[in-house]
Amino acid sequence: MRSGSSPRWDSIFNMLLHDDTGTLRFNLYQCTQNSVNYQYVSSCEVKMKYGADDSIMFWAIGNESTILAKHAECGGEVEMVVPFEAAGSGELKVRLVLKEWQFGDDSPSHSSNFHASSSRQSLYSPSNLPYKTGRKIKITIVEGKDLVARDKSGKSAAYVKLQYGKESQRTKTAQNNSNPIWDQTVEFDEIADGEYLKIKCFSEDTFSDENIGTANVNLEGLVEGLMRDVWIPLEKVNSGELRMQIEVSAQNPASSSGSGWIEIAVIEGRDLVAADMRGTSDPYVRVQYGTKKKRTKVLYKTLNPKWNQTFDFPDDGSPLELHVKDHNALLPTSNIGDCVVEYQRLQPNEMADKWIPLEGVKKGEIHVQITRKLPLLDKKSSVDSDSPFTKAHHISKQMKRMILDLESVIDEGNSETLTSQLSELESLQDMQEEYMSQLETEQVLLLNKIKELGQEFFNSSPSPPQSQSSSMSKKYSAL
């Protein structure tokens, strides 16, 4: 700004706070007229802390080493006037808003919107890992809001690129709109150990496309059957957010392993230790099978949680461990017990129902049902995998699992998820009735065929002597 000693910028920036504390530093520069060189003048900084009571504290050093402090609830705006460090450099007025948006429990992340200029390094993304969990991540890029406009009309033709591991996909281009609607879905194979989803938003141009914002999203901790609908702030730009719907689904483990699979149902816990000062915990279970990891949903304020969630792993003989954690959005996740689930001695396709005491803590048990499943042998699998009988059997299993999930959803009081799952359950019931009708039709056709074959066999047989004929008639009558 060239407005003398009292410039007004009114510039908005999105930045990310990747921990519960952080520092914003502002560097002031001066440019003399008709010069391209910027001379450093001074700097100031604002510190922030996300508190245990869900409040945010901002503070800075004022004149004569006094402390300037402001408190706000998450999402509330504060205004601060902070003096620059060098004497006679004046003051900087900033407005700050902290919004929680990140849904990865093990990597809390907060969006800080403030009126000033600064910069921030992108979130670290781990190196690409080759192991895939066997689950599918479905991501719907729904819409954008307040994207940076690159043409004089104030509009932008924008598209989004997504990279997950070594695979990348992009959306169609939404023409001439800073609030585009894509409503486009892409799928990725889930990668183990916390691989980040890298997002880049571009403004399409005739000569070269320009980056109008980036973001990294932690996909760890996604629960099957639950969709996450989030607004993601774009970094390194003045404004812009993307709305995404993210969900994960499991593939059939039998298709990826010819030797069978391990099925574990994490039913409930009882008498867990209290990890919070209020005398309760927010427990979830991390299921680890060798290098493969999955986790249950978080149940809040309880020492006797009921998860009722089932997980599958291709059977490779790895140790099966359960790690019970206390969820905490502000502090590091605390461990409230571990146990090892023994399954190697189980008979094939027989379920073991057991309560297992937790180790490393004074009390607590976990209720699990474990089955070492094996596919049917070829000589016994005369029924086609695509037959109505097989499909009806699979649907029955799906319906049983959904009923368990519905019980937990009813306990949580989540009406939106309940409506969705009831609709899906009704669809499965309709499909099952259709396959049962097909089975009845096939049964009638099979009986008619047997009668026809029997009649043909009887007609083609040579006529027996009279005495034998009488005996044969009696046998057929008995039949």
Automatic annotation (TrEMBL):
Protein's UniProt name: C2 domain-containing protein
- Chain ranges of the C2 domain: 118-232, 238-356
- Respond yes or no to whether keyword Coiled coil is given for this record: yes
Keyword check for Cytoplasm: no
- Which InterPro entries does this one have? C2_dom, C2_domain_sf
- Residue ranges annotated as compositionally biased, kind Low complexity, are 109-122
Annotated region (Disordered), positions in chain: 108-127, 457-479
- Provide the alphabetized UniProt keywords: Coiled coil
Q: Which residues form a coiled coil?
A: 422-456
Q: What is the lineage of its organism?
A: Eukaryota, Viridiplantae, Streptophyta, Embryophyta, Tracheophyta
